[in-house]
From TrEMBL:
GO terms for cellular component: membrane. Pfam families: adh_short. This is Short-subunit dehydrogenase. Keywords: Oxidoreductase. Belongs to the short-chain dehydrogenases/reductases (SDR) family. Residues 7-191 form the Ketoreductase domain. It comes from Tepidiforma thermophila (strain KCTC 52669 / CGMCC 1.13589 / G233).
Length: 287
């Protein structure tokens, strides 16, 4: 989809993190943007900023984990604009913890938000796209879906599943005018989950793991749509060779992986969460 002027884009998880940057980048390229997040007030500032660019913006309250909420989002977008040309499945959650500490509800929500919700939203918008023979689905996955991520294996599994879903859907849609792309960032500076870690725990990625800017992720979303890229990776080191090595030579990758310091970064957060949970349980027992 080379021409984005006056296209209608839906961006989930738009109230914070890279979702905000993606929404603004699409508006800069000429898109009208439907902004989805769990509460509308969190979206109002962004909506005004997009309107200031001369684009239309529609904030919609949506919990992507809820089926009725997903349907209401799509209905609101179509009622306002008449169609949806681009869907950016950006909303996601990450829980960093020792796997044995995670409960059923937590595991279920990770999969529902990160994998099931993008599938279901895609299913809702796809008929209209196919009828018009135009559309693009962008799934915000993660480098965690490509390389091992300790203490966040359910999140990594959900993101690997999202990549596989994108690949299969893209193959299915060939020749229809509709396509799909996966975006796979590593640690993103100043936005989203990594920024939350840094603010709440003081934990930072090692020098070798590095970070990427959210603006780069947003630009790559636009590039993926314009150039119909199947997948784009954002990592400060050459990302493709890193991911290929992890897939083709997992034993070798496992030996060099510790130098990136990723395990230590995640372990600090997992240990902190375990300690907070222990103190909370002690407090509840004492009460």
């Amino acid at each position: 989809m080379k021409n984005l002027q006056d296209r209608v884009a839906v961006v989930t998880g738009a109230s914070r993190g890279i979702g905000t940057y993606i929404a603004k980048e699409l508006a800069k390229e000429g898109c009208h943007v439907v902004l989805a997040a769990r509460t509308v007030p969190a979206l109002e500032g962004l909506a005004e900023e997009i309107r200031g660019m001369g684009r239309r913006a529609l904030p919609v309250a949506c919990d992507v984990a809820d089926a009725d909420s997903r349907r209401s989002l799509v209905s609101a977008a179509v009622a306002e604009f008449g169609r949806i040309d681009i869907l950016v499945n950006n909303a996601g959650i990450e829980v960093t913890a020792h796997f044995e500490d995670q409960d059923d509800e937590e595991l279920d929500r990770i999969i529902r938000v990160n994998l099931i919700a993008p599938m279901q939203l895609t299913r809702l918008v796809l008929p209209g796209m196919l009828e018009r023979k135009r559309g693009h689905i962008v799934n915000i996955s993660s480098l965690a879906g490509k390389v091992p991520v300790p203490y966040s294996s359910p999140y990594a599994a959900s993101k690997a599943g999202l990549i596989a879903f994108t690949e299969g859907l893209r193959a299915e849609l060939q020749g229809t005018g509709v396509s799909a792309s996966a975006i796979c960032p590593g640690f993103v500076a100043d936005a989203g989950m990594y920024a939350d870690w840094e603010r709440e725990t003081g934990t930072r990625a090692s020098f070798l793991a590095g970070t990427v800017k959210p603006e780069r992720v947003a630009r790559d979303v636009v590039k993926a749509i314009r150039k119909n890229r199947p997948e784009m990776l954002q990592f400060w080191l050459p990302a493709r060779p890193t991911a290929v090595l992890a897939e083709l030579a997992p034993g070798m990758f496992e030996k060099i992986y510790p130098i990136f310091g990723v395990k230590k970064t995640y372990e600090k957060i997992a240990d902190r969460r375990r300690e907070e949970k222990r103190k909370a349980q002690q407090g509840a027992a004492a009460g």
